[in-house]
Amino acid sequence: MLDDRVPCGYLSTTPDGVLVRVNATFLAWTGHRREDLVGRRRFVDLLPVGGRIYHETHYAPALRLQGTAREIALEVVCADGRRLPVLVNSVLERDADGTPRLIRTAVFDATERRRYEQEMLAATRRAEASEARAVELAQTLQQTLIPPTPPQVPGLDVAAAYRPAGDGRHVGGDFYDVFQVATDDWVVVLGDVQGKGVEAAVVTALARHTVRAAAVDHDAPRQVLHTLDQVLRGAATDRFCTAVLARLRRTDGTWRASVACAGHPLPLLRPSAGHPAPVGRHGPLLGVFPQPVFSDTEVTLAPGDTLVLFTDGVTEGRHRRGELYGNDRLAAVVAEHRGPAADVTDAILADVLRYQSGDARDDIAVVTVAVL
User: Fold this and answer.
1) Alpha helices (H) in 44-110, listed in sequence order
2) Helical spans, DSSP H, in 146-266
3) What is the pLDDT of residues 183-202, one digit of tens each?
4) What backbone phi and psi angles, to 5 degrees, belong to 251?
């Protein structure tokens, strides 16, 4: 018969599932004998326990209600006990009065498909595990880049905050550091490496440690930034970096700050009795241009003066309508909050997050230094 030679299994059963016809293809796949099946067993009898449950709860009801059941994934138990993955298409034929008469079923060998699905599942699990390891590594690296609490600096009140974008799983390149070079000689640096993930975290670590080493050899912030630029351009990465660096020295009881910027938002200086204003001059990105020029700006800090350093995750935070948070909003928050450095820092972070409905689109880092 023609249906014996088709490249798929073909079965006919009574409405209650008793096999009345089985083609040679199905018999060859499963190893069953025709005389053991026709008139003696039901189609559901060829399924394992799980398949029988699915047959009775999903397959058979759908066939009765809709008259068809398509691409049903099942397993058929072969004569030797092995299981053959199959896809089943069935049609319920009825008499003129609507009485169920016969069920015709086409069975397709899904062994290769099942193997492919299993390989895809295994590959997906490996990729997910690899991503989880990468995220864990990046987060571990970033924990070494962000000091948990700023140091105690005699004569200064220092506070800092860091908030990663989104759910925090993909670590970004924002970093800050506050460290001592000598007595009454401190460096505050805040930077932003392009991109996210492990490579960004590695470049961030390189930048932070380079600044620490260069600050020992060079007094001027512009020279430290120049050294960092050389290191980044010589590193095996195409990621650039922005940074703002302030060196604070106290002489005869008076603090002076020297500020240099490289492709970074200028810090805000709020006098004890005045409005905040940017301090410093813009410089080029780090790790990009062959002969960059950076400059220092010197300012004297009186008691009550406050210097605020921040990344572009603050001023470029976006409202739902797409509007940027902007410099004016930041300056207004700094002008309004004249308490401890921690209060100013917390107020900035809270206002930026509120502006973005609690969902930071970019990493946010803020360092506030107030003169006591």
Assistant:
1) 49-54, 60-66
2) 198-217, 221-234
3) 999 999 999 998 877 778 78
4) -130, 125
State the pLDDT at residue 303: 96
State how far the Cα of 54 lies from the Cα of 42, in Å rounded to an integer.
15
Place of tokens 């107020």: 347
Distant-in-sequence, close-in-space partners of 117: CB < 8 Å, separation ≥ 6:
none
Angle between helix 221-234 and 198-217 (nearest 10): 140
Please, is 255 exposed, middle or buried when counting C-beta atoms within 10 Å of its C-beta (0-12, 13-18, 19+)? buried
Distance CA 225, CA 75 (A): 67
- d(CA 320, CA 338) in angstroms, rounded, equals 29
* CATH number, domain 2-109: 3.30.450.20
Domains of the chain, residue spans: 2-109, 138-371
199-234: string of b/e by CB count within 10 Å (b at 16+)? bbbbbbbbbbebbeebbeeeebbbbbbbbbbebbee
Kindly state the DSSP code that residue 151 receives in the 8-state scheme: P
> Which residues lie closer than 8 Å to 185 by C-beta, 6 or more apart?
247, 248, 249, 250
What's the mean pLDDT in 131-139? 71
Task: Domain 138-371: give its CATH code.
Answer: 3.60.40.10
